[in-house]
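User: Hi! Is it possible to get a structure for several chains at once, not just one? Here's what I have:
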Amino acid sequence: MSEHELDGNAMAGDLREVFAVDVTTAVATCGGCGEPSVVARLRVWGPAPGLVARCPSCDDVVLRLVRGPERAWLDLRGAVSLQVAMPPLSTVAEG
Amino acid sequence: MTNRRLTWRAAVLEAARQETPSARTLVLRVPDWPGHLSGQHVDVRLTAPDGYSAQRSYSIASAWQDGGTVELTVQRVEDGEVSSYLTDDLQVGQPLELRGPVGGWFVWRNAPPPVLLVAGGSGVVPLMAMIRARGDVRGRQPFRLIYSVRTPQDALYVNELARRVRDDPGLDVRFVYTRKAPDGWPDPPGRLTVATINTYGWPPDFAPDVFVCGPTSFVEAAADILVALGHDPKKIRTERFGGTS
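Assistant: Yes, the chains can be modeled jointly so their relative placement is included. Here is the combined structure:
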């Protein structure tokens, strides 16, 4: 099984189709053990289009992503929160 | 990077270079490519006439220059349906579907600290992009690469690395051979050890930015050694590939 193990870096393309920001740099807090991890560090099993991302500390499933021909399913129930770095509020109005 | 949603683009193979008997660099022309950071990757999608499609991630090997091409170095994997097509069948002039650049975490952004790169096999590809980017910007931060390969014949970019080391006092490269070493090599073949990283890496006091890329078992072993030597886990960025097929 470890032969096909990837990490959250490999989810960047599929997530970037769904979100306007790069979610692989976000911090996901595991619902199982409470450990925060950068999404890029999650342990991912593929292959695409069905990816399962597990917590590097406790192995609980944090995130599941399936990309179908016309839709994507994102299951985030294993994450308590997703913390996303954003540009400072003052620049939002200018942009 | 823009905040628009990402979609697939049609790239064209402009040229190709054979790096080793089983690895090939694809030089791709991608219309409206927004540029990329070193360490980022792309997803490649192949679609058969019957509609079956397969998708894989490949690290970008080249540093971005305006108006330039995007290079991927693909290692053929036994029974790999995507990699064998890219290494053996794709002809110059043929199209390829590409999505990217993606990934904002395993990237080098011309930051001041010294850099330690640790590569296992074709994990050297994104690290080579960092070495090339540093060369392009004439970066002053010293780089060290520890590059583990099975045999001398498996090493990618050997001539270019030798040339860069010769011309650039800020770059050092140390090979580790796991199966067969060249004649006269001081160490017997074997896996990456604490002693190698301790000798050819940076001391933890220098607080280097560390990038490790390779198969999962290699990445875990290297990261464990680095942490045991006293490197801050937050400074160690890793990327694993599961033997991309």
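The beta strands of chain A are 5-7, 27-30, 36-38, 43-45, 50-54, 61-67, 72-75, 79-83. Chain A touches chain B at residues 2-10, 12-14, 16-17, 20-22, 24-25, 38-41, 46-49 (CB under 8 Å).

User: Great, thank you!
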